[in-house]
Design goal:
binds guanosine-5'-monophosphate; HIT-like; Histidine_triad_CS; binds zinc ion; catalytic activity; HIT domain-containing protein; HIT-like_sf
Length: about 110
């Protein structure tokens, strides 16, 4: 996708603070962190969201990347994973991504 900012980050055409990377996924710190740890995990290939036909091996690589982020960031007490999907959820970047949030008590409320 030519105009997709996350495709450009995945291709290292836009700089980011990379936390983890392999052939299928890349994890990098969010530009506007909402918690002490706020890292995004994205597939290198473009999918609009979590239900846009993402292959099982890519989903598995994403979950593995989440655990690599948790390890790298020392999130031993736990963390939250969020995948905003579509307008109702306020998805602003339409390239599938998982937010990994942690480093402070996050509270019980999801919204
Ligand atoms: P969404 O609301 O779509 O779930 O979240 C998109 C996230 O991407 C936001 O938390 C926003 O701060 C982050 N973001 C948007 N553009 C960039 C960017 O160019 N670099 C980085 N590192 N994060 C970005
Ligand atoms: Zn993209």
């Amino acid at each position: 996708m030519d105009d997709c900012i996350f495709c450009k980050i995945a291709a290292h055409q836009i700089p980011s603070t990379v936390v983890y990377e392999d052939d299928k996924v890349i994890a990098f710190d969010d530009l506007a962190p909402q918690a002490p740890v706020h890292t995004l995990v994205i597939p290198k290939d473009h999918y609009a969201n979590i239900i846009d036909g993402v292959p099982a091996d890519v989903l598995a690589a994403m979950v593995n990347a989440v655990s690599e982020v948790a390890r790298a960031k020392g999130l031993d007490d736990g963390f939250r994973v969020i995948a905003n999907t579509g307008e109702v959820a306020g998805q602003t970047v339409h390239h599938f991504h998982m937010h990994v949030l942690g480093g402070k008590p996050l509270g019980e409320n999801l919204v």
